[in-house]
Design brief:
The complex is a heterodimer of chains A (542) and B (137). Chain A has a domain of 378 residues: TIM Barrel (Alpha-Beta Barrel), CATH 3.20.20. Chain A starts with 40 loop residues before the first helix and ends in a 9-residue tail after the last helix. Chain A is built from 22 helices and 8 strands. Chain B has 137 residues and is α/β, with parallel strands linked by helices. Chain B is globular. Classes of the chains: A alpha/beta (542), B alpha/beta (137).
């Protein structure tokens, strides 16, 4: 690190010996033309809408279309969540985003031993097609876009959505939305995996192939850095691991015989919007440049649609504090502003009470209002990439690009991301960063207002959403009724067909859709695949 | 003198293990012997691990809201196995209204988001069962 020691600006005039981002990256006192001298505008930055899209994928930015305000929501039963969705749409939300509970995410029915105490707690419980029909009752799937945060059982939940759309008369060719479907970051960070990495990757390439022809407007994957960051990575690690995951999916798609330009345009990304304002903006700008370059030069993609990285962002849940929770509104607003200045295509803003519980209807509305104020009052949407050309932002962007490429090289050396995960490389890197950050908080090198400084005793408690246990009882009763009314023979036949396909190279989507139509449950479909592929167990790394 | 032995466990279906791992490492750096069970442990598995590892302390990391189901079952199993002198602490997201219930069933320490690691280390050092006393009985 360069230190400033000239006499005119003695070091002792500064508050600290060094200044670093929240990720620990050293930051200079001032940036000048010398820091960006090596950058060529046309090659490295370019106008918005022009390769490598550092300044954005649209020439008109938010003057053309604002980002989608997509608030992640779900709790309890499908009935309760359906009511919350209708309220969000009435409040001006422009897309839906489904939060599923842990049993659904882990492919377990409510009556499984491990579902005890978890049904409807962290999201909505969806066990079968019947629940999906209820979840979207009265919401026209042809008119809205829906994002679904689902990974290991993504194919099953997506199949349910397709069947509901079909029953509503909405064409698969026209509906749009996103499934997260990013299993690599589950192995790396969030740990909601079911099957081992290789069959898990096969499900994903099957979805790519199926959607390329059947559901062409659907985002087949949302390659996610959000959870990597929440698990404790630095901004650079979030960027590098996420983009390298993206490259891994493209490689597997190509290896499965797909043409790059036939499936890559349906891939999207998902980043964290954390607290260090400029580092985040640089991260998004670097992501677009890295992706465009890799698609063109590494994979030979010729379609501009393959080059353009589109991303959703969510403010950092991990930055929210249980102490002085109203401070979280301010944190979230700043993080959201960074995402917008970085050119996010859609955004979720967290609610002030999320360090304590799932949000109440009031706090969720305030979070949406935060986005609306940025969009309609702040004026930042009038100009595309307003920070482009800033010595600091351009230098930081390029540093992020270079740093990410160094990680790409290291992971390529290991044989790819699946191999890197199998040796625990990204997991170790993240655990290390998480511990280092915690230590810097303990030593008060990093200040968290209300937690390790500016502490206030005797805070009045705030009202939180309390999810009672009746959601589990109601879901169990519905599951019981379903098993008595559906045709058990149809379910058994469909599950057999699914097992048979899993043993061959056939595409898994058609037998999964058939099983969904027969009202097979998420747990039954996942169990059928568990029988064929087994379950993944990680070696924990501290 | 023997080091304090701590089993850190992550029960339920949740995979968010940042807190569990950071505390495991902080306790280890503070001189304790730490066994991290890994993810998705049932109360039965946690109680068995505590018995097998001769644990002085069990630390549960729970963020998902499943604590009202997991804690009572674990406390019951510990009693059955004669491990009621093992110090049980929980870290995570626990609504205020649940804290008295958990304390009443014998969970001694409940650490909410933002708790300094040092506070948890000191709590364990003060409250972990004393091995020397136990061997004299």
């Amino acid at each position: 690190m360069k230190t400033v020691t000239d006499e005119a600006t003695p070091k002792r005039s500064e508050r600290a010996a060094s200044f670093t981002t929240i990720s620990g990256r050293p930051i200079e006192r001032v940036y000048t033309a010398a820091d960006v001298a090596a950058l060529d505008y046309a090659r490295d930055i370019a106008d918005p809408g022009v390769f490598p899209y550092t300044r954005g994928i649209h020439p008109t930015g938010y003057r053309g279309k604002l980002w989608t305000m997509r608030q992640f929501a779900g709790y309890g039963t499908p009935e309760e969540t359906n009511a919350r969705y209708k309220a969000l749409l009435r409040a001006g939300g422009t897309g839906l985003s489904v939060a599923f509970d842990l049993p659904t995410l882990m492919g377990r029915d409510p009556d499984h031993e491990l579902s005890l105490g978890e049904v409807g707690k962290c999201g909505v419980n969806v066990t079968s097609l019947a629940d999906m029909e209820t979840l979207f009752d009265g919401i026209a799937l042809g008119d809205i876009t829906t994002s679904m945060t689902i990974n290991s059982p993504a194919a099953m939940i997506f199949a349910m959505y397709l069947v509901v759309a079909e029953k509503q008369g909405a064409s698969w060719k026209k509906i749009s939305g996103t499934i997260q479907n990013d299993i690599l970051k589950e192995f790396i960070a969030q740990k909601e995996y079911i099957f081992p990495p290789r069959p898990s990757m096969r499900i994903i390439t099957d979805i790519f192939a199926f959607c390329a022809t059947e559901v062409p407007k659907w985002n087949t994957i949302s390659v996610s850095g959000y959870h990597i960051r929440e698990a404790g990575s630095t901004a650079l690690q979030e960027l590098a691991f996420t983009l390298r995951d993206g490259l891994e999916y493209v490689q597997w798609g190509v290896d499965a015989g797909l043409d790059v330009d036939a499936f890559v345009p349906q891939m999207s990304f998902f980043f964290n919007a954390h607290s260090d304002f400029f580092e985040e903006i640089a991260k998004y700008r670097a992501a677009r440049k890295l992706w465009a370059t890799a698609m063109r030069d590494r994979f030979g993609a010729r379609s501009e649609r393959s080059w353009k990285l589109r991303f959703h962002s969510q403010t950092a849940g991990v930055s929210l504090t249980a102490q002085q929770p109203y401070n979280n509104v301010v944190r979230t607003a700043l993080q959201a502003l960074a995402a917008v200045l970085g050119g996010t295509n859609s955004l979720h803003t967290n609610s002030l009470d999320e360090a304590l519980a799932l949000p109440t209807a009031e706090t969720a509305t305030l979070a949406l209002r935060t986005q609306q104020i940025i969009a309609h009052e702040s004026g930042v949407t009038n100009v595309v990439d307003p920070l482009g050309g800033s010595y600091f932002v351009e230098k930081l962007t390029q540093d992020m690009v270079d740093g990410a490429r160094a990680y790409f090289d290291a992971i390529d050396q290991m044989g790819g991301m699946v191999e890197a995960i199998e040796r625990g490389f990204p997991q170790k890197e993240i655990a290390e960063s998480a511990y280092r950050f915690q230590q810097s908080v303990e030593r008060r090198e990093k200040v968290i207002v209300g937690v390790n400084d500016f502490v206030q005793e005797d805070e009045p408690p705030i009202a939180i959403l309390y999810i009672d246990e009746t959601a589990a009882d109601r879901q169990l009763a519905k599951l019981d009724a379903l098993k008595r009314t559906r045709s058990q023979a149809d379910v058994a036949r469909a599950l057999d067909a699914l097992r048979r396909t899993a043993k061959t190279k056939g595409n898994l989507m058609p037998p999964i859709i058939d099983a969904v139509r027969a009202y097979a449950t998420v747990g039954e479909m996942c169990d059928a695949l568990r029988e064929v592929w087994g379950e993944y167990e990680e070696v924990p790394i501290i | 003198m023997r080091k304090i032995r701590v089993v850190i466990a992550k029960p339920g279906l949740d995979g968010h293990d940042r807190g569990a791992k950071v505390i495991a490492r902080a306790l280890r750096d503070a001189g304790m012997e730490v066994i991290y069970t890994g993810l998705r442990q049932t109360p039965e598995q946690i109680a068995s691990a505590a018995l097998q590892e001769d644990a002085d302390v069990i630390g549960l990391s729970i963020l998902s809201g499943a604590h009202n189901h997991i804690a009572p079952r674990l406390m019951e199993l510990l009693k059955q196995k004669g491990l009621d002198d093992v110090l049980v602490v929980i870290g995570g997201i626990i609504p205020d209204v649940d804290i008295p219930k958990l304390k009443a069933m014998g969970v001694k320490g409940i650490f909410l988001p933002g708790t300094p690691m040092q506070e948890i280390i000191e709590f364990i050092n003060t409250n972990a069962r004393s091995r020397n006393l136990k061997s004299e009985v």
